[in-house]
Amino acid sequence: MEKKGCYHCGNEITTFNRIVFDEKEFCCNGCKTVYEIFSENDLSCYYDMQQAPGATPEEANGKYDFLDKSEIINKLLEFDEGPTSIVSLYIPHIHCSSCIWILENLNRLNQGVYRVLVNFPEKKATITFNKEKTSLKEIVLLLNKIGYEPYISLKNYDDKPQQVDRSLIYKIGIAFFAFGNVMMLSFPEYFNIDDIWMRQYKDFFRWLILIISLPVFFYSASPYYIAAWKGIRSKNYTIDIPMALGIIVMFIRSAVDIIFDLGPGFFDSMTMLVFFMLLGKLFQQRTYNFLSFERDYKSYFPIAITKLVEGNKEEPIQIYDVVKGDRLLIRNQELLPVDSILISESTFIDYSFVTGEAVPVEKKSGDKLFAGGKQVGDIIEVEVINSVSQSYLTQLWSNDVFQKRVDMKYKTITDTISHFFTPVLLTISILGFIGWSFVSINAAFNVFTAILIVACPCALALTAPFTLGNAIRILGRSSFYLKNVTVVEQMAKVDTIVFDKTGTITTNAKSIIQYEGEELTSEEQSDIRNIIRGSNHPLSRKLYGFLQARIVAKPNTFEEIPGQGLVGTMNNRSYFIGSQELVGIPHDKIINETAVHIKIDGEYKGKFVFANHYRLGVKELFEQLDKKHYKFAILSGDNDGELEALKALLPPSTALVFNQKPEQKLEYVKELQETGANVMMVGDGLNDAGALAQSNVGVSISENVNVFTPASDAILDARKFAYLEKFMDYSKKSVKIIKLSYILALTYNVIGISVCLLNKMSPLVAAIIMPVSTISIISFVTILTNYFAKRILK
Amino acid sequence: MSVIYFLISISVVVAGIFLYLFIKSVKSGQFDDAYTPSVRMLFDDEIKSDVKKSSSKNKTNHLVNENQRENQI
């Protein structure tokens, strides 16, 4: 049987969900509806640009009612005057050119929309619309209907649009301008040492160079003075100190040279140096616009919730306005933003994100529900007992231990080097000064300043930014997003890896269910669905959601045999649904396969196979890491029900710890660190947030990197989980590259300083040695990082 | 030869104008999103061509698909 994906979203089509429309196959009604909308409006080009570009639309039913409230709308709108309004919506599904095209043609689906502008890297759509012809709610509902659901969270409500800091670009622009012009104006100086023409014009050239260099010295290079000053105050010999010193000495000596007509000065080298250094800064400043590493509960919470007012009328209310005693309505898959008491009869709450428990917990009327749980089931009614700011989740987040990391500073590899480099450099230059002062005091000053100028560790300081900047770019292409360049260095030092269980080595996503065996008729499917309806077993609930029969009826008889499955009769046929023992077929051991077997009227039909509970490649990953002598631990907020399965899966040295509260996880990591270990924590949920912050490298793993991850140092796309070992390996190689190129950079420095000590340094030599060292270092690290990326990551 | 004062002044001023334009365009946010415009310029008349969609057209579109996907990588 040829497997074909849904024409709209590309999901697999099985006998259970096939819908044929317009000679195309769809996986569900939602996808079909989107296709209908597009083809009716001549927008079916959507499917030509990219195959199966769409997403299955979710049911909105009442989810966006809060967009009727003007105070909430006003907070979301960026611009609002007269009939024209502008709103920026974050749409996680934006991923291809089709998405840009369809969104920018949104005005064909809604006449009130003037214009849509998509920002692809940020996954944002800026929509300009006519308030009188349409409303924000209508637009959001339309987006939702075509599968582009915007993500609106409490964060949107609080956030002011922040100013983008572009000063680095200005500084680079000015430095480049000055560098180019100064170089040009220095050319005569390089070649005509002393002739009549030169004598006539040299003052003009020199003074022009001096003037052009002023903004570079005072504006473009200013970050280095600030950093150096901070370094001196905290007695940290950072690389910025010799750099700032080099720039200042270069400027003063050159200015003196020009003013007193002593020589041409080093302004060409200075401007070039500042330009390259700033370029390095830009290069390591790799930001992922669509990701955030500092998310807090606000981006997890909804912006509003449904409140029941007198007469059971539903009314959307802003989260911050919820007070004790309010009655709230929570729909299926909605998040509980506040601690509350259940009023409805019963429900299931999924706390996997907050506590790490894998299975939704059943709650009965009168039970206390904690904030942060997701409601799974029919609509429920709850009574609020704490406002948002006092609820469990918010409290957990503002807990001090979870915030501690801010002032923790790691010593980078560059800092370590400069710790030796700075004192040695100063000693050499002073010795040079003393030595030459016996000859002539003028020569002594020349030597002293020349050493500081040439030794200015340009190449040294550029090595790490370029290597690591390139490394995070390469890792980002493999869907492993690092917060900044220091994370690469930290990763290379890791020797102990701590994993969370739920959601990290197991998957959170809805299990993919496959059916193997004789095909079931739709009556049989419907019967099975009705029999398992009464069961609360997690597998039953998953299977119930998977089968799509419509008719709801009560089975004639129905019995649940704990640990085995369900036995029931319906429409005069007997059904056995459950384990291999129950249906009476030989027990063959397939590790790590969860299946529900079906027997109808004494005849074995087949089985529903639930996709691997553990992530793909977990076993191999651990084996590889074990070979490299990493230590592991599994910390789980869940009970020890899976102890045996995990033992079979993981290397014997793995420590398995269960029933861990968020604070305990943090303590565990801390204890490991106190024994001298460099810990990497891999987690996914709020319950890991503390441990992620405490660890040396906190990696949060996410099925959908766009939507939500706790604060961390790195975000790993769940599909690349098995690559973790390769990423670790790559980070180690990157640090090795840095060390190699330090040798190269120091060689240049030694040559430069030797020339200076002989008092042979001229502006021309400086203008040659500096770019040669810089460019050779940059090409060296770029080539090597790409070479290793090719070898390791593919 | 004193024309050199004049010429060099002009060259610096011209360069200065470019610097000013660069800073101005950065300030206006022109370089914030470098990707979307590159895709946007590729679609223009798609809606019209939709009417006479035929199977042969689909095939050429597939080729376009491949190209675009490569471009994205």
Explain what the structure shows:
The complex is a heterodimer of chains A (about 800) and B (about 70). Chain A is α+β, with helices and mostly antiparallel strands and about 800 residues long. Chain A has four domains: about 65-160, Alpha-Beta Plaits (2-Layer Sandwich), CATH 3.30.70; about 165-285 and about 410-465 and about 735-794, no CATH class; about 480-505 and about 615-725, Rossmann fold; about 515-610, Calcium-transporting ATPase, cytoplasmic domain N (3-Layer(aba) Sandwich), CATH 3.40.1110. Chain A is about 45% helix and about 15% strand. Chain A has 26 helices and 28 strands. In chain A, strand 20 and strand 21 (about 575-580) form a beta hairpin. The longest helix of chain A has about 35 residues, at about 725-755. The two termini of chain A are about 30 Å apart. Chain B has about 70 residues and is mostly helical. Chain B has one domain (about 5-70). Chain B has helices spanning about 5-25, 35-40, 45-50, 55-70. Chain B is elongated, with a radius of gyration of 23 Å. The chains are: A alpha+beta (about 800), B mainly alpha (about 70).
Number of β-strand runs of chain A: 28
- The geometry of chain B reads as elongated
Give the largest interface pair and sizes: A-B, 37 and 38 residues
Strand pairing plus helix content of chain B: what structural class?
A: mainly alpha
Count of distinct strands of chain B: 0
Helix content of chain A: 40-55%
Protein name (chain B): Cbb3-type cytochrome oxidase assembly protein CcoS
Pfam family, one (chain B): FixS
Region (Disordered) (chain B): 49-73
Transmembrane segments (chain B): 6-23
